[in-house]
Amino acid sequence: MNDVTLKIPQATSKRLPLYYRFLQNFANAGKKRVSSSELSDAMKIDAATIRRDFSHFGALGRKGYGYDVQYLVDFFRQTLDQDEETDVALIGVGSLGNAFLKYNFHKNHNTRIVLAFDPKASDDGKEMSGIPVFHPELLEEKIKKFGIELVILTVPSRIAQEVTDDLVKIGVKGILNFTPVRLSVPDSVRVHTIDLSVELQTLIYFIKNDVKDSQM
After folding, report:
1. β-strand pairing of 150-153 with 86-91
2. Half-sphere exposure of residue 53, counting CA atoms within 13 Å on the CB side?
3. Is 66 known as a binding-site position?
4. Distance between CA 21 and CA 73 in Å, rounded?
5. Sequence-separated (6 or more) residues with CB below 8 Å from residue 189
6. Is 34 labelled a binding residue?
7. Could you give the CA distance from residue 159 to residue 61 in angstroms, rounded to a whole number?
8. CA nearest to 10, candidates 192, 215, 195, 160
9. Number of C-beta neighbours around residue 102 at 10 A
10. 86-198 sits in which CATH class?
11. Rounded distance, CA 40 to CA 32, Å?
12. What is the phi-psi region of residue 130: left when phi exceeds 0, alpha when psi lies from -120 to 50, beta otherwise?
């Protein structure tokens, strides 16, 4: 993201890619303008939250008119640096990692996995889903060669911190962590953790409480 996103709340920043995706859908459907209420219905986000998020960027719309769809698509594309592709490395090619390799990120946005690492790979590397996979011994060499600053981490929990320490030393700036480990990193490195088991438990909790509320 460019500098403007650094001045807005983190919760708003996390919603920006969602706004961009849904606005693209509206644009692809030929819609010229959209209201916060229409966005709210499509995204299941409160309209007041949408207006508040947009207000951080100045006057993006006009009262009584709504928002110009193509203008917002262009605005969020620039804000999210969608015109510049970001190369990503995948660390760990187990079941989840293999699924990531098979998913073509670049068809939907500007992120693409260009290399991966797995202990089962030989020193010469191998190819999976069209992506080269190397042994972790080549981590530093390949990360620097490809100029990688962002990685997806899907390794076993017992080695997650060790691998993270190596990535920090190499100069990686961002880690999308799919392990349940709360990684320790310096302030110069940003980590986003997605614990699938926690997300599932949270979903189950809300479903059960929705049922209880409906029975009251």
Report:
1. parallel
2. 23
3. no
4. 9
5. 167, 168, 172, 173, 174, 175
6. no
7. 49
8. 192
9. 11
10. alpha beta
11. 17
12. left
Structure tokens at 3: 């500098």
211 is in an annotated binding site: no
Q: At what angle do helices 157-170 and 139-146 cross, to 10 degrees?
A: 50
* DSSP state, residue 86: E
Q: What is the pLDDT along the chain (216 residues), one digit of tens a residue?
A: 444 444 678 788 888 888 888 998 999 999 998 988 999 999 889 989 998 888 888 768 776 678 999 999 888 888 877 556 789 999 999 888 988 888 765 555 578 899 999 998 887 888 898 899 999 999 999 999 999 999 999 999 999 999 999 999 999 999 999 999 999 999 999 999 988 888 888 888 878 776 555 555
Beta bridge mates, 115:
89
Q: How many whole angstroms separate alpha carbon 111 and alpha carbon 85?
A: 6
Question: Could you tell me the fold of the domain covering 3-79?
Answer: Arc Repressor Mutant, subunit A (1.10.10)
Alpha helices of 86-156 — where are they, by DSSP H?
95-102, 139-146
Instruction: Report which of 199, 197, 192 is spatially closest to residue 88, judged by C-alpha positions.
Output: 192
95: annotated binding-site residue?
A: yes
CATH 1.10.10.10 region(s) of the chain? Answer: 3-79
Give ranges for CATH 3.40.50.720 in the chain.
86-198
Quote the tokens at residue 197. 């088991």
Within 1-108, strands assigned E span: 33-34, 61-62, 66-68, 86-91
Token pair 């990685």 is found at 151
